[in-house]
TrEMBL record:
Gene source species: Pseudothermotoga thermarum DSM 5069
InterPro entries, alphabetized: Aldolase_TIM, Elp3/MiaA/NifB-like_rSAM, HydE/PylB-like, rSAM, rSAM_sf
Residues annotated as domain Radical SAM core: 21-243
Protein name: Radical SAM domain protein
GO molecular function: iron-sulfur cluster binding; metal ion binding; transferase activity
Family matches, as SMART domains: Elp3
Keyword Disulfide bond applies: no
């Protein structure tokens, strides 16, 4: 079993020296190995030549299970986020890791490419508090080409899991893989109706992946998708203005609409610098204090 932790997590645990990102409430862990899938955007796909200590832009360093269990405390982190690479025998490693972390009494979210509903049940029984089943690609044809598999099957599995475990299922969507605004909004609306949390990511080209030369989405487009997601979950989807398949503006925005630009996902998720470099503009803003006075907030209003 190979366990990695993000460098920000290790900073907060005091295992390595460095500046802890603002608002870091969740410990980010990675159960690592050689993935059996070939998602074209991923540093861990079996054909990728990327440096494997990275996932997206985040640097992950190995930590032993003993050191991890000794270091993690409820008064340091309010949640554990465990991302799982789909390597051979990952299921048994994940079950063993969940059982080891369960004793910490910290809520555990896992993000894993489950095969069926029985696998979902196993992880909840082993101690998971939430399970993320990623969609990533919002267009059916692009899903097959970029991620591999069947989008309809994934959506049906998410709906089945959400029915069995209401309020305990999450999903991920990546903006900028060739989908239209309407396609991604339609999936967000579908997830909202069944109480599935939606975490948004901006596509990030990473060296060594098949899509390393693909252009990331503009900040303006990403802000519009963030606003649309937030409005949908606030019950205000009528505020989204479309022209053909593109979002062109919004009406009747609440005063606190800037909250839409915060990192989305499970409770207490901040996930700092996953899509961007420190010092540049942030696609996902990881702390509320960073919202105030930022020059790009108004860019989303049309």
């Amino acid at each position: 079993m190979i366990i990695h932790a993000s460098v920000g997590t290790l900073y907060k645990l005091g295992i390595r020296k460095g500046n802890v990102p603002a608002g870091l409430k969740t410990a980010y862990l990675l159960l690592d190995g050689r993935c059996q899938y070939n998602c074209l955007y991923c540093t861990h796909s079996f054909e990728s030549s990327s440096r494997r200590e990275f996932l997206s832009r985040v640097l992950w360093l190995e930590i032993s299970l003993d050191d991890l269990v000794k270091s993690l405390k409820k008064d340091v982190f309010s949640r554990i986020c465990l991302q799982v690479v789909s390597y051979k025998n990952y299921k048994q490693d994940l079950l063993n890791l969940l059982k080891a972390l369960k004793s910490l009494e910290i809520p555990i979210s896992i993000s894993v490419r489950v095969c069926d509903i029985e696998e979902v049940k196993q992880y909840f029984e082993a101690g998971a508090e939430r399970i993320g089943i990623a969609i990533d690609v919002a267009n059916e044809d692009l899903y097959r080409k970029i991620r591999g598999g069947n989008l309809k099957k994934t959506l049906n599995l998410i709906e089945e899991a959400a029915q069995l475990y209401p309020g305990k299922i999450s999903t991920h969507l990546i903006v900028g893989l060739g989908e239209t605004d309407r396609e991604i909004v339609q999936i967000i609306e579908r997830m909202s109706k069944i109480n599935v949390a939606v975490a948004l990511f901006a596509f990030t080209p990473v060296k060594g992946s098949k899509l390393e030369n693909h252009t990331p989405p503009s900040l303006e487009r990403y802000r519009k998708i963030q606003l649309a997601r937030w409005l949908i979950f606030e019950g205000k989807s009528d505020s989204i203005i479309f022209e053909n398949d593109a979002i062109v503006g919004f009406k009747d925005l609440p005063e606190d609409y800037q909250k839409a630009f915060l990192t989305s996902g499970c409770p207490d998720c901040t996930r700092p610098y996953y899509n961007e470099k420190p010092g540049k503009y942030l696609y996902n803003i990881h702390a509320e204090e960073l919202l105030n006075g930022e020059r790009f907030i108004e860019e989303a209003r049309t």
